Amino acid sequence: MRKAFLLTASVICTVSLMAQPKLSKNNIDEVLGCMTLEEKATLVVGGGWGSMTAGSMTASDASLVSGAAGTTRAIPRLGIPATVLADGPAGLRINPTRPGTSQTFYCTGFPVGTVLASTWNTELVQQLTTAMGEEVKEYGADVLLAPGQNLHRNPLCGRNFEYFSEDPFLTGKMSAAYVKGIQSNGVGVSVKHFAANSQEVNRQNNDSRVSARALRELYLKGFEIAVKESDPWTVMSSYNKINGEFTQQSHGLLTTILRDEWGFGGIVMTDWGNKEGTVAAVKAGNDLMEPGMQNEIDRVVAAVKDGSLDVADLDRNVRRILEYIVRTPRFAGYKYSNKPDLAGHAKLVRAATPEGLVLLENNGVLPLKDVKKVALYGTGAYDFIAGGTGSGNVNKAYVRNIADGLRVNGLEVDQDIETWYNQYIALTKTQLRNNSAGNGLGILLGDPVVPEMEVSRSFMERKLASTDIAILTISRNAGEGDDRKNADGDWTLTGNERQMLQTLADLYHAAGKKFVVVLNIGGVIETASWKNIPDAILLAWTPGQEGGYAVADVLTGAANPSGKLPMTFPVAYFDIPSAANFPANYSGGNSIDLSALFGGGRAPRVLRKDIDYTNYAEDLMVGYRYFTTKGKNVSYPFGYGLSYTTFEYGKPSVKLGKDGKVTATITVKNTGSVAGKEAVQLYVSAPAGGLDKPACELKAFAKTKELKPGESQTLTMVIDAYTLASFNENTCAWETAAGAYKALFGASVADIRATANFKIGKAQSWPAHAVCLPK
Ligand code: BGC
Description:
Low-confidence stretches: 440-444, 591-603
Structural class: alpha/beta
Bound molecules: beta-D-glucopyranose
Helix content: 25-40%
Oligomer: single chain
Strand content: 15-25%
Radius of gyration: 27 Å
Strand order of the largest sheet: 1-2-3-4-6-9
């Protein structure tokens, strides 16, 4: 039927070249029928590297958005506009200034993905991304290249801060909320990087070798939830391979699983790199090549001409791109204001951020009482890190630091210490900038991190008498292009940091005063060896532009933190099973290293473990799945976080409905003396007899509203039978076993407050396809 229509459309087109149709929602097939082969090839290839940098913009693209990551190409004769794609995920990343105008185009620096997940509050995430989406729309972009939702397979992945969690269920729920918020503005998202992009080292070529079960249950599950629950406009295929095949060229991944099994209806675009297999990508259902190169257009044209690419495959992708284009604000001619509500969003971010901050330790010192003057140490206290580097960086107008935050909360910061730090930071930044001058990437990729300053014991001693408390901020940053290192200054503290920590603790404790540590870090670090030294540890993460204010709001008690960890903090790095297969000490970065694959004459050479390929040998044993199953000690468990109040969990009820859904309820009461919120996690232990499973898995969660002292709330969580299923590699099906299940209601995975049993009477299964299998 469709073919017949296309034929008619192209006949109409040929006979009346004068009456060219202009694209509308109702004539997609007609427009497709009028496109030349070259035009079709043009539409599946993006606008090119640098198409959005201010310098390269011509008058005709002046309406586009400087600093956006890419575009789709326009075909004016058919009324097809170029659309604009911009990063993501901690806010919109565009150039903050443009030549010829004094207007600025700053965007709000929102909390990074890990902080969003730490809130365990999907409503709040949706509220934040609704605001973020307004910036996307009002600055004239059509798609935000976000959320990033790869799993935290290993804590040293350089981009973990952009991603949500080590758990696929939490990841999927966060992603769905994120997508709904952005898309409620009538702009799109690109959930990325699909899939199993768990490291930055050699990310363009690395082969993730993973079992079908771990792939389905861990690395794809979050995407599955997001696709089914939030209907993202686009998905971004990753750079890496899965089991020997580039994801961009994997029909099994991009068509069989994504579309046929999950019902995805949008477009797939590549991550930003030109691979030789353009034709394979088109066939696989990778609709759009980004950022787009002329040689990709040429390959598509040549392949159709020589018969190696069926034009029907190209038409299918072109149609999907047209369907995407007609949804965009640019197609609708939306007159964006270039004036999003930055002030309103700053307020929202400040109020929301404490929900993502995690109080790790507190012997009663927090919230601060009877404190007037603070000895504030650590470069991060004055040069707060709001988010990571790389494409996840946002060009925000300012970042609130902790010193200012304490002042707006009525405290005094020791002036000598502040002046000394500020001078050191200014000097070091100038040096760092000079060293990297000329690469032109600074503004896009984020500021260099200033290494910690050395402070002598005698200086600290001099400041002891005149200050009431010492606070030390420990900082780390990471970003796209490299993984973190299992080394001092990254995973572990430097000698200088340890010494400062111990000296401040010794001095202040000897004087009967307190000492607090703030962690301004993008990902997990080693804590077990030093966590008992300070009186409190506040994990601030890299929580966006209002971070320093939010930290101070929490320290002073203006806000009660309610964040909980979306990942495990192990005792030691090598406690993590994936540490055996991760490039934790590789320093070669992610340059496109074809010599890794081909020596002279392109003969295959020996592939390097963890660089050219990575064995996901730990299989399902990622994060708490491993630590709970093996009963291994951790520094802080998944789901953990303290509050300034306490909560009591009532007796739960779990009922299996006729629809096969399990409804769990539990009443939570605030038993402390200040208002607060509690995130309740529902883990499920499966019956013996079915597939072997981890000891327990997160299957639902809910967060209370702000409960006043003495106030209670009943939380309801619903789990359907499919959510309980595991992937059986032998039958290639999702299976939910019959038998007695245990529902565990936890304040963390290691702090189960109540349990209840439920029975599934009949086993169920859902067939899947045998694709993306290990070789
Ligand atoms: C990153 C993507 C990003 C894209 C465009 C790539 O290098 O991996 O996350 O969206 O660049 O900036």
